[in-house]
Amino acid sequence: MRALRILLVIAVVLGGIFVIVDRVAVHFAEGEAADRVRASEGLASTPDVDIQGFPFLTQVLGGSFDEVRVGISDYEAGGGEGGKTIRIADLRADLRGVEFSGDFGSAVADSATGTATIAYDELLRNAKAEPTKVAPGITAEVVALSDGGNGKIKVALETTVLGTKLPEPVSVLSSVTVVDGNTVRVRADALPVLGGVQIAESRVRRITDFEQKIDGLPGGISLEKVQAASDGVDVTVTGKDVRLAG
After folding, report:
1. Cross-referenced Pfam families, in alphabetical order (predicted)?
2. Count of domains in the chain?
3. Average pLDDT of the chain?
C-alpha cells in the first residue's frame, strides 16, 4: 500500500509538472505566432493569439493545432481605388485545422470564421459626404450614419435649398449587404422627400446609396454577411486555406 501511495504521489507531481511545462510552452508559442502574424501582415501592433486545446505539446508533435483564435485591433484594410483605406476597429477570427512549420515561419488554416466591426464614422468617411446637387437649387449630403434597428442603417441627410440649410436632417432607413465577397453596399429602402420636392430616384440614390470596398484582409479571408449594430456594422468573415504567416 505504501508503494502504491508513493507511485500515486509521483504520478500527481509529474502530472503537475507536465501541465506547467505545457502551459509555459503554449504561452511561448502564442507569442512567437503573434510576432509572425504581425510581420506577415505588416500590423502596427501585435495581435492576440490564443491556441486552444490541451495538451499543447502533443499538438506540436503532430504539426497542427485544432483551433487558434486571433484578434486584431485597428486593422487598416484596403478601401478601393486611389489608395483609400478603411479601419476595422476589431477583427476576430477562429481558425480550424492549422498546419504549421516547426519555427512557426508558416501557418495555414483549413478554414476560418470570424467577425469584423467597422465604426459608423469610418464608414461615413468613405461615403458621399459632400454636398451634391439633386435638383435645381437643392443640394444634399450624408452627415451621419447610425443604427436604425433590425439590422438597418439610419442615414441622415442634410439638405440645402437656395443656399439655406434646412434645420433638421432627413433620415432614411437603408439595407446593408455584402457584394462579391469584398464590398459593403448601403441602399435606401424608401426614397426621402428633400426640401419638399419629390426628386427623381436616380438623383436621390446618388446620395443615399453607396458602396465601400474592403480588401486585403489577413490571410485572404472574405466578407460573408453584414448587419448594422449599435456602434457600427458587424461583418461576418470566412475563408478557406487561410495563410497566417509564411
Report:
1. LmeA
2. 2
3. 80
Give how far Cα 58 sits from Cα of 25, 34, 51, 65, 121, Å. Answer: 11, 20, 13, 10, 46
d(CA 88, CA 114): 13
- Compute the distance between CA of residue 128 and CA of residue 130 in angstroms, rounded to an integer: 6
The DSSP-derived string for 81-116 is GGG-EEEEEEEEEEEEEEEE-TTSS-EEEEEEEEEE
User: Positive or negative CA dihedral for 112, 68, 98, 102?
Assistant: positive
pLDDT digits (tens, 9 = 90+) for 217-230: 877 788 999 999 98
pLDDT tens digits, one per residue of 90-116: 889 898 888 877 666 677 888 889 998
Q: Note down the domain range covering 136.
A: 123-213
Cell numbers describing residue 97:
485545422
Say yes or no: 82 and 36 in one domain. Answer: yes
